[in-house]
Amino acid sequence: MAQHAHSHKEHSGEALIDAARHTLTDAGEQWTGMRQSVFEELSRHEKPASAYDIADNLSAARGKRVAPNSVYRILDLFVRNNLANRIESANAYLVNTHPGCRHDCIFLICDDCGKALHIDDDRVTGALRDAGKDAGFIDVRPVVELRGLCDECGA
């Protein structure tokens, strides 16, 4: 199988936040206090988190309401700049632990516990990329989601 681990550096903690800030500012965007708060909250989640989850947690931490629509706008900015990945089938987001790095994604998502695992398989994504190009699309970037039970829930 052509699966492989990422050859680029995955970040965590403060290094992840610094990498995200640099990626966003290098793209000409501002790194505001609210954007940092949303990114930090998203990075705390090991499972995909919804904008509502993030807004609720930030509202509790700040002692005032944070609107989910504001969080959605920030998360969409993060996705456009490769700071986060959107899990379409769950309407939720995962932090990109290698901000700014653009690559094909295959997500395995557990229907029971919500765990999400990211893998690469060049055979699958290469075939999808080729199919897109054959259909006349440019700048094709496959994002694949597979649903099922993880090894813990399926046992």
Q: Ends: how far apart? A: 24 Å
Q: List segments where confidence is low: pLDDT < 50 over at least 5 consecutive residues.
A: 1-8
Count of DSSP E strands?
Answer: 6
Categorize the overall geometry.
globular
Helix count?
5
Q: Kindly report the spatial arrangement of strands forming the biggest sheet.
A: 1-5-4-6
Structural class: alpha+beta
Largest sheet report: 4 strands, mixed
SSE run:
EHHHHEEEEHE
Indicate the percent of residues in helices.
40-55%
Radius of gyration: 16 Å
Mean pLDDT: 87
In short:
By secondary structure, the chain is α+β, with helices and mostly antiparallel strands. The protein has helices spanning 13-26, 33-44, 51-62, 68-80, 122-134, and strands spanning 3-4, 84-87, 92-95, 105-110, 116-121, 143-148.
Walkthrough of the structure:
It contains five helices and six strands; from the N terminus they run βααααββββαβ. The strands form two sheets. The chain has a four-stranded mixed β-sheet. Strands 2-3 form a two-stranded antiparallel sheet. Helices cover 41% and strands 18% of the residues. Mean pLDDT is 87; it is low at 1-8. The longest helix has 14 residues, at 13-26. The chain has 155 residues and is of the alpha+beta class. Helix 2 crosses helix 3 and helix 3 (51-62) crosses helix 4 (68-80). The chain is globular, with a radius of gyration of 16 Å.
SSE arrangement:
Blueprint: E1 3-4, H1 13-26, H2 33-44, H3 51-62, H4 68-80, E2 84-87, E3 92-95, E4 105-110, E5 116-121, H5 122-134, E6 143-148
Parallel strand pairs: 4-6
Antiparallel strand pairs: 1-5, 2-3, 4-5
Helix pairs in contact: 1-2, 2-3, 3-4
